[in-house]
Write a structure and sequence with these properties.
Blueprint (H helix, E strand, L loop, with lengths): L2 H14 L3 H13 L2 H19 L6 H11 L2 H15 L8 H10 L9 H4 L5 H16 L27 H15 L3 H28 L7 E6 L5 H14 L3 E5 L4 E6 L1 H31 L6 H30 L4 H19 L13 H11 L19
Antiparallel strand pairs: 1-3, 2-3
Helix pairs in contact: 1-2, 1-3, 1-8, 2-8, 3-5, 3-8, 4-5, 5-8, 9-10, 9-12, 10-12, 10-13, 10-14, 11-12, 11-13, 12-13, 13-15
InterPro entries: DUF2786 (IPR024498)
Pfam families: DUF2786
Protein name: DUF2786 domain-containing protein
């Protein structure tokens, strides 16, 4: 082991601990050491540890999301670029989705020599600290569910779904864009309900087509970021949208994401609808704050969290009604057995990948927030041609 590698080991070990002075002394050792040797040791360590993550279920988008959450902006950028450097060492075949994710993060790599100084913005000491923090983060990450085969693997894993460019999905996106842009809650919910109905019909058609063709493809999976504040309420919204679309969601609070398992058309619906509904939920919460302020109430964290929890649960009820209506319209004898078999396959996959899951108990800390959130999700009829319903005045 070279002197630079020994200094780096010491810096990483002390950064994991609680002794701030010891960590600063170890960092000072890196600062005064041979810069080229330290840069080479850092790059070798980071690329090695990043490469170990791919066979353990991680994807570039997952790592970038977590780095953005836990590191400084420069630290996240450093780790992003290290992924690009590590890409050069990957064994073939490297799937297209992997490179697409790297491109989406903005990862780039030019040359190994002086790589840290080029990203230091004139502050090498802080850049070294950020790089050490990135090394600590990467080295401490646990395995996660493998949703796709890693680079160099000829095996199979869960096939992740990517929404296609079909005309139907274009219609769904247009409806959700209208829902997000309107200032009228009833209109927003009517647009969202129509989008859910279209997605439900698309999913049912896909399920019947697969059953008729005797396809054997199993459930796939996607990961959706869940960020503070109110991460639990946002995870609940994902869960409600997932359940509406015959998917299962498992929230990994410590890692900042939810894993959603289901069949491709259903996963596409979850990603589209969740994104739109999160925008709508936030807008509804802000309106609720304003109404609370005008009534003389004070904004509290409990109010916001209760509002979002109630919104998620009530929206889930409304979306399930839309999905049920779509299924009734088709009236196909093959439908129930096909959908039941798909639901069983998804639950089996969840049990395989997440055998130790626990349930999170929902807490209502502010009654007014709960009532307001329920009302915000309950103002509109699911059918745009029917009159709006009166708001509910009680809890779930």
């Amino acid at each position: 082991m070279s002197p630079a590698e020994r200094l780096l080991d010491a810096a990483v070990a002390t950064a994991r601990g609680t002794d701030v002075r010891e960590a600063e002394r170890a960092l000072d050792g890196l600062v005064v050491a041979d810069g080229a040797a330290v840069d080479a040791a850092l790059l070798a360590r980071l690329t090695r540890d990043v490469g170990r993550l791919w066979p353990r279920g991680w994807q570039p988008a997952d790592l970038d999301r977590l780095a953005t959450r836990r590191l400084t902006p420069r630290g996240a950028r450093l780790l992003r670029d290290v992924m690009a450097a590590q890409r050069r060492t990957l064994p073939a075949p490297v799937p297209a989705w992997f490179d697409d994710q790297l491109t989406d993060t903005g990862a780039r790599w030019d040359d190994d020599a002086g790589w840290l100084d080029r990203r230091a913005d004139g502050d090498r000491i802080t850049a070294l600290r950020d790089a050490v923090d990135a090394a600590v983060l990467v080295a401490g990450l646990p395995p996660v569910a493998a949703l796709r085969p890693p680079p160099g693997s000829a095996g199979t894993a869960l096939a992740a779904a990517t929404p296609s460019g079909s005309r139907m999905l274009d219609r769904v996106r247009a409806l959700l864009a209208k829902a997000e842009s309107t200032g009228y809650p009833a209109e927003a919910e009517a647009f969202t309900a129509k989008a859910q109905e279209l997605m439900a019909r698309h999913s049912i058609d896909a399920a019947l087509l697969d059953a008729g063709a005797e396809r054997s493809g199993g459930p796939g999976g996607v990961r959706i970021g869940v960020d503070a504040p109110y991460a639990a309420a946002k995870a609940l919204l994902i869960q409600e949208v997932a359940a509406t679309n015959r998917c299962e969601s498992v929230w990994s609070d410590d890692l900042g994401f939810a894993t959603v398992l289901g069949f491709p058309a259903d996963l596409a619906a979850v990603e589209l609808l969740h994104t739109s509904l999160l925008v709508q939920a936030t807008a509804a919460m802000l309106r609720g704050r304003g109404e609370r302020g005008r009534a003389g109430g004070r904004r509290t964290k409990g109010y916001d969290e209760s509002f979002l929890n109630a919104f998620a649960l009530r929206i889930g009820d409304r979306l399930r009604e839309a999905s049920a209506a779509a299924a009734e319209e088709l009236d196909d004898d093959r439908l129930l057995p096909v959908l039941a078999a798909r639901s069983d396959a998804v639950r089996e996959r969840v049990d395989q990948l997440f055998p130790g899951t626990t349930r999170h108990r929902l807490q209502v800390r502010d009654e007014q927030g709960w009532v307001s959130g329920t009302s915000a999700a309950d103002r509109a009829s699911l059918d745009p041609g029917r009159p709006a319903r009166r708001p509910l005045r009680g809890g779930r």
